[in-house]
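Q: Start with the shorter request: fold the first protein.
A: Done. Sequence, then structure:
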Amino acid sequence: MEKTNIFLTGFSGTGKSTVGHHLAKMLGWSFVDTDRYIELQKDKNISAIFEELGEKEFRKIEGEVINQVCKLQYQVVATGGGAVLSELNRRLMDENGIIVCLEARVDILSKRLSSNISNRPNKEIRPLLGGSDLISEINKLKSKRQFVYSMSNFTVHTDDQSIGEVATIIYRDWKHFEKKNGLNLLRDTVSLVHTSETIYPVCVGWGILDSIAEKINSISSHSIVYLITDSGANKYARRIQTTLESAGVRSHLFVMQSGEKYKTLNTVNMVYDWLAGLKAERSHIVIAIGGGVVGDLAGFVAATYLRGMKIIQVPTTLLAIMDSSIGGKTGVDLNSGKNLVGAFYQPEFVLSDVETLTTLPKRQLISGWAEALKHGLIKDEGLIDEFERNVDSVLSLDKDITTSLIRKSLSIKAEVVSLDEHELLGSRIMLNYGHTIGHAIETAGKYEKMLHGEAVSVGMMGAGYISNSLGMLTDEQFERQKSLLEMYGLPVKVDGIDSTDVKNAMLLDKKTVDGSIRWVLLDYIGHSVVKRDISEKLMLEALNSVIV
């Protein structure tokens, strides 16, 4: 079925109506606001309808309106914040268009909603937000809806962007995929990453691994595929190979040895020889299947062999899903340090099947949560609230909650990467919170002492110590970070490593400029800053606080 509508969903105050009106003008389409449509039909405002008929009857009316709207074409539709709660509504919108979720931090939503009421006294208070503590009401209601919001085709954050900027992002994305006839590629998409050369989707869902053949056919119908994996993810690679062959796609499989110590130029040369022997061409596709080591190495191979082959990232570990598969960073390690040789090279798309996490060893799974928590710590306190409320569900891999939180966390990373693809503007470095010390711990421990996420967790405590010492992060917030990491079974200290070795490794880090380390710090939970003037004394204090 042809998708000829754009549906905007999201919480009240995210800007659906204003953005939708602007976007419709840009596209030359009609604009429909379902809440206003209902008010005109019933000759009453939404609050009055709720009060007289109740929420259940309102949702019935809302469903009828969405059904009517979905029969038309070339519309931008702003839906009510609760419209996507209905499975029928979601199905109708998905069948007839692209669903875009608008997102904003809770504090921003509170300010916008409060401003609307104060500036326009006749504007009714949203019926489900009538309590005395608006922030608490928003948090409570938003947490209940977050999973269905996360099921949108992609998310756009409106916190620090104008109406026109948000509308332009959606317009650009729609036109890009419409031109490529690749709207089907957007299925299961949580966010779109914008780069200087292209736009690519990050697809996340439960049990979506077998959809890869359809997605590959959206970008190339006559290509040969080269699968690169390791022993840990070989079963998923075999499954994908079977899926591709059933769809008539030719494929070849390379299984490398597992572990960071094999992420080297020697392994790269082995893959080069394999590709050369198979007479691989630039138009062919490389698929990386596995953890971060496979993704980094296969991405680097794709970036450099024949000066560039297409690459698809299929991460099968939580760490790879949350970190290495998005952003186009590829590379290998040298004896001197981690990822010192590499390139920025963006994938055609990223496909993350959350169900693959059910077979991960517990330690690897826990390690991966460090990167997800990091996204909330640097950018979204509301996400941290959700992680704190859902610890047991997350650790037991509850299908809906886990998928929702992963999707929301990844939307943050995609947004940051889009704003600073090559780390030239300074915003992308925020993703390195905890990594300055974390990478150095990995190097000093010869990549055997700690897993990446474990090292990052310790690194975040070191960075938090500096933030607290500088008077930015309060004692209460510093303790909150520590408690959060411990809730998820992550370490906050490391032993058996020499602090001098860690310090020396830090000076070789990519974040060092002119011998000065660029530190990513927190001035409060949900907001990060970069500092370069950290004294050696404070740095050593931070190291000593986490190395025992």
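Q: Next, the second protein, separately.
A: Sequence, then structure:
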Amino acid sequence: MKNSLLLTLFVIFFSCHNDRTIPLLLDRVESLIETQPDSAEIFLDSIQMPDKLNDKLFARWCFLQSKTADKLHKEMPYVEQLSRALQWYAKHGTAKQQAWTGLYLGRSYTEDKLFIPAINAYSDALEIAQNKHIYNVAGYICSYMADLYTYTGQRTEERRKFEEAADYFKKAGNIRSYAFALRDIAQTWVFGDSCSIALNYMLKADSIITKLNDSIGMASIANGFGNIYKKTGDLNKARLYYIKSIALYNTKSSPNFLALSNIYYRNGTIDSARYYLEKSKSLTTNPYTHIDRLYMGYLIEKDDNEKDKALNYLEQYIEAKDSLYDTEKQIDIIDAEKRHNLAVLSKQYKDLQLTEYFHITLLCISAIITLIIYLFYQAKNNYQRKVLEQKGILLNELELEIQQKNSSFENTEDLQTEAKRTKEELCALKQNIFQAASITKRIKKLCKNVTPDKDQKLTDKDWNSLIALIQMLYPNIITFIKENPYSLTDTEKKICYLSFLQLDVKAEAILLDIIPNSVSKYRLRTRQRLNLTNQDTSIHDYLLTY
């Protein structure tokens, strides 16, 4: 109770942020991350518009936001945000800050299923960690690279990176993570049908974790033993290990329940298999667990002669599997890492072999190339800035033109037509700017890439960005909604904002985290509040009249 009160007082104190309070708030966040990440998140969320911070404060906010998200097993900040932070740390930060931020950037790319940029970000971060002997960070980078290969089904590459991770963790003295890396290596051998090798690695990991008296770690190792014995056909011993794993750590037992479902299915106990399959529905971030659960459901219902249920499971399984495995991407990821390593080796060789003359020549060439690149990007930035300025000028001119023509030629039919055309051009320009905005693209991407068992509702940051965009293009509409003469509820206001995206009911349901039927009801209530009786007029078209 006392801690909760103190937290509330702190949040109230820091609710009005300025250049003086932000650093103090971030100091408080940093002190809480390790022991109270939930409280740290509350403080971070109190910063309403972090993107408007100066580069130094933003980089620190982004770093702490990533660290907190990691502790709470939540999504990383946006790629654009982490790229900005990394750019600042590359010039002003320590090697450790650069390596960690590069790791977080790779994870953010992976969350967006952008695997090639992810492996490049990981490779760059790993190079920094290796050169500066930051072995602990290097171990985590290799682990996440291995996870990426796991995600794309590349078991050989996966094992290679887990072995590298184990070596780095051992050098860093991170015994717990070293044990987990051994466990992960064992799992790759299980998939490779080399259970004797897998058992040796798992016994080593178990010995370390047991000495640490780590219940979560022991639960994970018990699951690993269960996988090995299930693979060898010793189903009773496997079952006992899965039950042990659940008893040690019940929070994330979805893989254990699924494994038990498989064991009971193989024993012909369909009801028990179906029972544990249902229990495996608990939240998991592992895409393989989800796919395996769908396939297990198909097998159970097929054997029980439930044809419709079996077909439903099979269709879901095929769809999920097709979205997960992409052979072309797998090859590209391997090539991307090899190209990065080759570039590093090539550079090292040249540094050792080239004479002073070639060094000078190379330096001159690099300077010229750098200058060309700088001039190119400078020209590109100038061009983009001019385009935006021209769009802004055009927008103002069109609005002025409409006003002039509406006032001067109101009674002239031809000129009224011209004014209408100009107004339509203005509306089209605003719509183009709206559709090209990054927040619009992000929201539509969320609706298209629906991930099972994953919360995809819009965050406060997303809502703020969307409202800011509408404010820029349609200030009168935002004023109308904020003044709220029709007493719109918060959800009804969100329906108004989302109307600009012209989404279907299903898409809005995903963003609002409600069922489609509820979206339809909220749309109807919003129309009633606005006294919008004409069914041919949408909420979006109605708001444009303001």
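Q: Describe the second briefly.
A: Residues 356-408 form the longest helix (53 residues). DSSP finds 27 helices and no strands in the chain.
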